[in-house]
Amino acid sequence: MKVLIIEDEQALNASIVTYLQQGSYTCDSALNFREARQKVMNQPYDCVLVDLTLPDGNGLDIVRLLKANDPETGIIIISAKDALDDKVAGLELGADDYLTKPFHLSELNARLKSVLRRRNFNGQKVLQAGSLEVYPESAEAMVDGQKLTLTKKEYDLLLYFISNKNRVLTKESIAEHLWGDHIEGLDSLDFVYTHIKNLRRKLVEAGGEDPIQTVYGMGYKFSS
Amino acid sequence: MRILTKTSLYYLLVSVIVFLLGGLSFYKIMQVEIYDEVDDQLFTDKENILEYIRQNNELPSVTSGISEAILVKEVTVASPTLEALSDTLIFSAYDEEFLPFRKLTFTTYQDGKPYQYTILKSLMDFDDLSESTMLAMGWIFLLLLFGLVTVNYIINRFAWANFYDTLAKVKGYSLSRFQPLHLRSSNTREFQELNEVLLAMTDKIHGDYLNLKEFTENASHEIQTPLAIVSSKLELFMQSENLTPQQATMLEEMYSSVNRLGRLNKSLILLTRIENREFSEREQLPLHELLKEQLEQLHEIMEMHDLELLPPKLEAVYLTMNRGLAEVLVSNLLLNAIRHNQPAGTIEVRLSQEQLCISNTGSALEGTPEELFRRFMSSKDQAGSLGIGLALVSKICTVYRLQPSYTYTDGLHRLCIKFQKNRA
Q1: Which residue of A102, A153, A183 is in closest CB contact with B227?
Q2: Which is it for strands A2-6 and A47-51: parallel, antiparallel or unpaired?
């Protein structure tokens, strides 16, 4: 899996690369428009993360370029502009997803995986973690071949965990992943706890091990 | 009260006092003069009578008329009145009223016999005089009043015209859609000075406003990137092994604060962009469908808060709005109803052709309803809330000329958005 990260902030670029490299990605980074253009032209990528505001150009031009030359490539826009219209423009051009800064790396990772899955690059129709199998196409999960009855949110949560295997996920990022941006002041962290408790119970009842560890003070970690 | 009305009133007040005092003193002076004159005449008559008696040794023939009467009476008792001057009233059969007279009584002797003379002179003239004085004063006063109104009208029309023009323009002045003030130049020095000062002031304020706005915008945008860096580094840091519980707690606290800052900043950027009217794209928006979608999305959150959503009554309403802003509007209203609710409370949504009303149970507001729509006005027990949601609602309402209103009755908060001409 080759991913290109186009982001002019060196530090942020490095963070993304570090986080993604812990997965099974080969990461390439570009710090400006010229470099990005060159890299995109030279070799195919499975997915490109592109910042819209680059010092020497507009990220949307990269999106156009990719759409014209390499329509198979997944595109995720990352931007400091929280723009309802930029978002629309980006998605209309054919970007697969849009994230505004600041974002959770775990969220970015989950979105990246989802884009890659949807584009079906390696034909991976099932995500496996021990005895647990998740089928994103049908939104189903099985333990030892036995189907789990999960609510929509529990399934989303499980998928989010599997996408970020062996990483610490903060309660905030989980809450935002499940309920979106506008959940402040809604006791969402308590609800995260409730959902995780239910998910654990269902996994254990189905005969699996409890793969969700509580990481003291920080959040949760899905280990396989 | 207009300044001209005010000055006129003062002027009138002083005029009334001057006219009253003037009329009174005029009356008094005339009275003294007339008494003097009448008394003089009485004494002249007396001298004439005495002279006549002395020369002819007989009593003069006595005349009597309207304005004058001389009465003679033989006095038996020798208690001679030398001279007595007084006022008296005599009933006039013709006028059927008492008329004022001035009376001089004196005693004279003819052939050693005392005779009492009474000379009467009418004061009617004097009464007439005071009447006509009053009448004249009244007329002059009326003329003055008329003159005042005319002068005021002319002053208002011409001299103050520039002032009122300036006032109207300053009233309509808005910082956010800056058009320089075009003030009519005036040949009245004060007004010209006022205009110059106003122009200089608005230019300065507008300059400051632009600077501040630019700063805020840049700051908000520039803050996003460092925030993203801090947030990402913290998240990476959290992945490291062997963190002590204390370190882990600190990291998580930092992370959550940075996230909060990021969300706050995003909302502020959105607020600024709405203020700048950057969302020009509009469409015919089915508000009822938008509400349905949002209610579905928030269904779980309501359930988790143990809130009951009463069956929504949604008429089909189409508004011409930006879709993104409409979503922000609706979701913030609904989230507000969830956030400020009580356990086992209710939420009711009603959409009619005139308005959208969202009611929810909850304890009474601490501040005034006006404060509700200001930014950072979140109540104490809502520590996690940014207090910016309703500020966004109010901004969006301003952009689309919708009227938000808030009432609280019987433990029920009720936020309504009235639609105006915007209706499709």
Answers
A1: A102
A2: parallel
